[in-house]
Design brief:
Blueprint lengths: L7 E6 L6 H12 L3 E3 L18 H6 L2 E2 L12 H15 L5 E5 L3 H9 L9 H14 L1 H11 L1 H4 L7 H14 L17 E8 L2 H17 L2 H7 L15 H7 L5 H23 L6 E4 L4 H14 L4
Parallel strand pairs: 1-4, 1-5, 2-3, 2-4, 5-6
């Protein structure tokens, strides 16, 4: 029996296209509970196909939170998500002892499980100037600047993500201290226990599944979805794999075959970064993606019954 005094968040992590959504639904059905999505790309209702969001059938199979609840026009940060997710968990835990969280956005899932690092407020004009520099000179200049100011962050953040680079730089410039110096400080304790499980596979198989998913997205209308968002292409939400490559096709910069190959390549790189991020957590219980759900549940049961409140 699950200790009624203890609440558990089962967090499912792993690279894209590995089967996290399917497992989350099976676990939610088994535990008769809800699913919290921590996939930052699936927050946006205009981005359905290119983010591999759960289908209507999947959404109907279990109660989901934080799927398509925002617009690409909204400014929705990881800090706001953390607050919203914790508020939702507080409500769910009134009637449930277990809640499932799923998503490939490591920063967002970690924010819910562990809390965010604190950063001092800095002058807003710093970010404005960095965005101007990005638009005028490109990302490489900002990457070089970050390498000089904070080599630790340069080698640890998603260096090809302009938002992440600018965030690190504005802290470096605004505080005159490295962005990395503010990381991993003591945080507020959670009123629930987290059990993190990861899905993985041989790299060649992960890449094969990614390629197949991209082909399926295109078959399901990804190009039409991207075309419908063309006028909003400068929004940060759309500066992401699957969208930016097809914008180049629409612009006649690339042909379609090359754009598709770039989507697959960049998604494979993204999956590699995801695995690097998730494998930092030594407490994650890893399973091969083909492991039967009942075996995963059997593995989880001792953790659920033996973990006590501190």
């Amino acid at each position: 029996m699950i200790n009624p005094q203890t609440k558990y968040l089962i967090s499912i992590v792993g690279p894209t296209a590995i089967g996290k959504t399917a497992l989350s639904i099976k676990l939610a059905q088994y535990f008769k509970t809800d699913i919290i999505s921590a996939d930052s790309r699936q927050f946006f209702k205009e981005m359905e196909i290119g983010t591999a969001a759960p289908t209507k059938t999947e959404l109907a199979a279990a109660n989901h939170h934080f799927i398509h609840h925002k617009s690409i026009m909204d400014n929705y940060s990881v800090g706001t998500f953390e607050k919203d997710a914790l508020k939702t968990l507080d409500q769910l835990f009134k009637n449930k002892n277990v809640v499932i969280m799923v998503g490939g956005s490591g920063l967002y899932s970690d924010a819910v499980k562990n809390g965010l690092d604190y950063f001092p407020k800095v002058d807003a004009t710093i970010r404005e100037n960095l965005n101007t520099k990005l638009n005028k000179n490109g990302l490489a200049i900002l990457q070089e600047q970050l390498l000089k100011l904070d080599p630790i962050s340069y080698n640890s953040i998603a260096i090809n993500n302009p938002h992440r680079v600018i965030r690190a730089l504005e802290i470096c410039i605004g505080t005159k201290q490295p962005y990395s110096s503010f990381l991993n400080k003591p945080k507020n304790k959670r009123n629930f226990k987290t059990i993190t499980i990861g899905l993985t596979a041989e790299r060649a198989l992960i890449y094969q599944r990614i390629n197949q998913r991209v082909d399926l997205m295109l078959k399901n209308g990804l190009l039409d979805e991207v075309t419908s968002l063309l006028e909003h292409r400068n929004l940060n939400a759309l500066n992401t794999v699957g969208y930016k490559e097809l914008f180049n096709f629409i612009d006649h910069t690339w042909d379609l075959e090359f754009a598709i190959s770039e989507i697959k390549k960049n998604t494979r790189r993204f999956a590699k970064r995801q695995l690097t991020w998730f494998k930092r957590n030594e407490n994650t219980i890893w399973f091969d993606f083909s492991t039967p759900t009942e075996n995963i549940i059997s593995t989880l049961q001792p953790y659920l019954s033996n973990i006590k409140n501190d």
